[in-house]
């Protein structure tokens, strides 16, 4: 891939044709994409992610706010280097990152669609998180929506919070649910589970953790 040509496409075709906005400081980014050659493939609290039809192996993550978060994510990727469990940072600009595209289906969507999640996926993620800790990072906010399965292996697609301090128990709690509920009751026959059910469990978990944190104070 010619990175200079790709950067030129970002600067001339993508950035002038996308608008990233928010309704309030607590809402996710709203993406307006008027480009004909760039496709929006995701958005989060700070950024939108875009794919060019001629470069399917890379994506661009464009930040719409909180430039300091962009700087922190760059440092996270520099520490991670080139590791099989994560994406890879190829280059960056004032408000965007150029990243290796990770294929796959999230664990969240796998449960909804009835796709089996083998043990090796969980082990792959554990090994990736262990590596991140070994290079001085603190894996934070790892959950079923930012971990994917591709060809039977597990990958972590979002490392933007790995600079944060403290203990985040989301991945440990997900693993407990995997071994105590998913493996014995769902894995073998694994029927599709409606989105409202899975999303309700996710929201219930968040509420449970929030209430428990208050009680522990």
TrEMBL record:
Domain of life: Bacteria
PANTHER family: SERINE/THREONINE-PROTEIN KINASE YRZF-RELATED, SERINE_THREONINE-PROTEIN KINASE YRZF-RELATED
Name of the protein in question: Serine/threonine protein kinase
Annotated organism of origin: Neobacillus bataviensis
